[in-house]
Amino acid sequence: MSGKWPLLCAAFTASAVLYGAIVGGQIEQIFNAAVTGAERAAVAMGFGVKRVVVEGQRNATDAAITTALAAGPDTFMLAFDTDAAKDRLELCRGSGMRA
User: Fold this and answer.
1) Which residue range is the domain that position 14 belongs to?
2) Lower CB density within 10 Å: C or N end of the chain?
3) Beta bridge partners of residue 76, listed in sequence order
């Protein structure tokens, strides 16, 4: 086989697999697996949280603050929502914790 045939066979096979995934309702799972794999690769390349350091807290434990931040090992930094983390800390602050 030479010429365009291998390319056409590969395109046909890819389209058949894609069609099967769409009809079978597997697209979302495939997409989520791809995103999770990409995030894990990015964390392995250094785009992840290695440690969380908490200083100056008076009314909460390090663990409570870390839980409120929803950040820890393997958190993907580029997808971390700082505004949501600030809001969660403010909620803890209202319950007696000082941010």
Assistant:
1) 1-45
2) N
3) 48
Angle at the Cα of 44 (from 41 to 46), degrees rounded to 5? 115
CB 47 within 8 A of CB 72: no
Q: Give the CA distances from residue 75 to residues 52, 78, 83, in Å, rounded to whole numbers and listed in that order.
A: 11, 9, 16
Residues 40 and 58 in one domain: no
**Chain segment 20-75, per-residue pLDDT in tens:** 988 888 888 888 888 888 888 877 787 777 776 767 667 777 777 778 887 777 77
Task: Give yes or no for residue 10 having a pLDDT over 90.
Answer: yes
Dihedral over Cα of 62, 63, 68, 70: its sign: positive
Residue 41 and residue 52 in one domain: no
As for how many domains the chain has, the answer is 2
